[in-house]
Specification:
The complex is a heterodimer of chains A (206) and B (283).
Chain A (H helix, E strand, L loop, with lengths): L1 E3 L17 H7 L5 H10 L7 H10 L3 H14 L2 H7 L8 H13 L1 H12 L4 H11 L7 H11 L3 H14 L5 H10 L4 H14 L3
Helix pairs in contact in A: 2-4, 3-4, 3-5, 4-6, 6-8, 8-10, 9-10, 10-12, 11-12
Chain B lengths: L11 H15 L8 H14 L5 H10 L4 H10 L10 H15 L9 E5 L6 H13 L7 E8 L2 H9 L1 E2 L1 H4 L4 H7 E3 L5 E3 L1 H6 E5 L5 H4 L5 E6 L8 H14 E9 L13 E4 L4 E4 L4
Parallel strand pairs in B: 1-2, 1-7, 2-6, 7-8
Antiparallel strand pairs in B: 3-5, 4-5, 8-10, 9-10
Classes of the chains: A mainly alpha (206), B alpha/beta (283).
């Protein structure tokens, strides 16, 4: 007993016996075994044309580990088709579907950036809040500018409050004039005044 | 380098081109601040391979069938800074908490499998071996398999030889140094044959899912101070691979400045008295 040396030989799990070509993998996204679905999703990362199917399955997948694998594969593919496929899922009522989309977009700044302005003009305030959530961790030079546009022009107080919260994290001194002006647009709401003051203090490092 | 050799310069555009290529091959991303580090090593390989400039070398690197030069470059670009009993509290956590969590659900005839990745020159896997033998009372009740892997072939050879200088062993108590090492004529310390025989060293690139498929059924993975070299996407891919490598209920130990929760929600956070570690859910 105790320490033993075992020569490492790569194992061939059960899922390896299944077909690993694109069609086989796509079929396995519906397999009853979560393990098989997870491996299929990971292996589909090398097939950019699988983006649409992965997005569709992400919407109905119930196992968190399989959802994460699908998300990783989609991030690896990282194409415009991935963003196009995920955009509708950002409207989902189910946070378990919506949150991974926010996370995926944050990994894909170049692919998602052409859509941000349109997303911020959506008629649904919740959708605009989720877009602000994307901006919370989007490594793109335009991010502070988009947030500033939100607080200058969005009519919904909750969307603006979400943007103020993100600006407190990522904003520069240049955002302070727009922040200072914001409570004037929601003069009846002392909460906004409080949020803005807190954000300005964070930006100034106080 | 001979006097007749002209030291090639690497332009910023070439640095970017190389950075992108190296990232795609290894998942390792170099920030602009690492440019001096990267340029210095690139120039070393350009000259060593008889190329005159980056352009010629880069063509060779991309199209060389054997991949030997890419491996040589990986060996140079990866950092191998470690020593025995580094971040010892995690070894304490292993023997006091992690293994005690694992063994109640493990049949006696099933080995406990522990993976050290990246193993670097072997200090971590050999530390694990010593710690288990010295501090885990049940070490004799179970078969324990120790696999240690790295992306760097030179460092793996060094690990198999198990020879260390004074700096590497400075945190080891004298009694353990005497018990498990032989002092060589050149002043180095070589770890005993029994321990060298107990660790299997293998070459692996953790972001290559194809390679990672073979790494399965581990109870504990030590993956310390590796993910910090990766960018966000590679970290996610690596986290998926580590998840696949673990048995349900298995544990992963990261470096003290790393957090799996910032990478993926796949793992449960487990707060033991000695350390915070991450667990693959049981089901």
């Amino acid at each position: 007993m105790a320490l033993i040396r075992k020569t490492h030989t790569p194992s061939d799990g059960d899922s390896r016996r299944l077909l690993r070509d694109r069609e086989g993998l796509l079929r396995q996204l519906d397999d009853e075994s979560a393990e098989a679905r997870r491996w299929a999703a990971l292996d589909l990362a090398v097939f950019p044309e699988a983006a649409e199917a992965l997005c569709a399955h992400l919407q109905r997948e119930i196992q968190p580990a399989v959802r994460q694998a699908m998300l990783t594969a989609l991030i690896e593919i990282g194409s415009d088709a991935v963003v196009e496929g995920l955009l509708p899922l950002l409207r989902s009522e189910d946070a378990a579907v919506r949150n991974p989309v926010v996370e995926a977009f944050q990994h894909l700044p170049d692919a998602v950036s052409p859509h941000i302005e349109t997303m911020l003009q959506d008629s649904d305030p919740d959708y605009r809040i989720f877009t602000v959530n994307v901006l919370n961790n989007l490594r793109h030079p335009q991010t502070p500018g988009w947030l500033q546009t939100v607080i200058e022009s969005d009519a919904d107080i909750n969307v603006c409050a979400a943007a103020v919260e993100v600006l407190a994290e990522v904003g520069a001194l240049a955002a302070i004039p727009a922040l200072t002006a914001l409570p004037g647009r929601f003069a009846d709401d002392p909460f906004m005044q409080f949020c803005v003051q807190a954000a300005i203090r964070r930006i100034q490092g106080k | 380098m001979s006097l007749s050799q002209v030291v090639p310069a690497i332009s910023y555009e070439e640095f970017l081109k190389f950075r992108d290529f190296f990232y795609r091959k290894t998942g390792i991303h170099f920030e602009d601040t690492k440019r001096y580090f990267v340029d210095k090593r690139l120039i070393e390989r350009i000259l060593a391979t008889g190329n005159e400039n980056f352009r010629g070398y880069f063509v060779m690197l991309r199209f060389e069938v054997s991949g030997a030069e890419l491996q040589a470059l990986i060996n140079l670009m990866t950092v191998n800074e470690t020593y025995f009993f580094r971040e010892e509290y995690q070894f304490t956590c292993l023997v006091n908490s992690i293994l005690e969590d694992i063994v109640p659900r493990k049949p006696r005839n099933e080995p406990i499998r522990i993976w050290s990745v990246p193993s670097s020159s072997g200090e971590e896997p050999y530390s694990l071996a010593i710690y288990l033998l010295e501090h885990w009372p049940r070490a004799n009740d179970y078969d324990i398999e120790l696999i240690a892997s790295d992306i760097d072939t030179v460092i793996l050879d060094k690990a198999r030889q198990g020879c260390y200088d004074k700096r590497s062993v400075q945190h080891l108590p004298d009694a353990l140094l005497r018990k498990y090492f032989t002092t060589l004529l050149n002043g180095q310390y070589q770890i005993n044959q029994d321990l060298r025989d107990s660790v299997e060293f293998t070459l692996v690139n953790i972001t290559e899912l194809t390679q990672m498929r073979g790494y399965r059924d581990f109870d504990v993975v030590f993956c310390r101070n590796l993910l910090i070299y990766f960018d966000d996407t590679s970290r996610r891919i690596a986290a998926e691979a580590l998840f696949n490598a673990l048995r349900p209920g298995g544990f992963i130990c990261l470096g003290h400045s790393e957090s799996m929760s910032r990478i993926t929600p796949l793992f449960k956070v487990r707060k033991f008295p000695e350390a915070i570690v991450y667990q693959k859910p049981l089901r």
